[in-house]
Amino acid sequence: MFPTRHWHHMTTEEIRGADTSRWIAVLPLAAIEQHGPHLPLGTDLVIAEGQVARVIELLPRDCPVTFLPVQAIGKSNEHAGFPGTLTLSWETATRAWIEIGEGLAASGITKLVMVSSHGGNMAVLDTVALELRARFGILAVVTRWGRFGQPEGVFSAEEISVGIHGGDIETSLMLHLAPELVRLERSADFLSAQGTLKARYRHLRAHGAHAFGWLSSDLNPSGVVGNAAIATADKGRASLDHAAWGFVELLQEMETYELDCDVAPS
Predict the structure, then answer these.
(1) Distance between CA atoms of residues 191 and 219, nearest Å
(2) In this structure, which CATH number among 3.40.50.10310, 3.20.20.100, 3.90.1200.10, 3.30.70.120 belongs to the domain 7-256?
(3) Which helix (H) or strand (E) is 29 found in, with range?
(4) Which domain of life is it from (predicted)?
(5) Tens of pLDDT along 41-57?
């Protein structure tokens, strides 16, 4: 049988009787954390749920993909100084996500995509992916919705580079997905210390190739960065679709790929 699009909608008997080795499981991850004065604590969760829903709309019916429930709380200790933030330690997150993979392996799953709407999860997920490969033989891919880039001409290069938390991109996504949760009158152009670093230093950055570990208040006292004041729902819709189509392509590539060490010339 083909999987249902939601893992938790199937029965144990349906999974037992299926060739689950052909399935691709998707584990979406998010966060509950401060997003400044204008966005809710659940911004990353709303975005993750919206992206999953759009991918499901776009997926070809014969693509054997099933989505696990979104992991709402992630590793967010860079935001722990702000009220409302909930975070797992890196130890707890690592253990929990490996154990989810272990359960999938026990059900016959051999391919997994872990996709996050929160950047703070990524370092943990890289470790988890390797552990799942080494321990259980799972092909585990790690990505973020933002890694598929942005549609041409929608956001400025500066905003894509610097506005990494609560700026134009995330605010636009929220205006598209849940406008009733956006306090637009409190939005602003939240400048980032990343800009100062770029002006003063050749290599040193808060994020990028030569980055230091930062707390969100190291970038801006408000805990957010980027120009939220120019956000629009139309830009959010374009961003959501761009990432969703990229993710569909990734899933289709995974469907045809096997870990057989194919080193033949392309």
Answers:
(1) 8
(2) 3.40.50.10310
(3) strand 24-29
(4) Bacteria
(5) 999 999 999 999 999 99
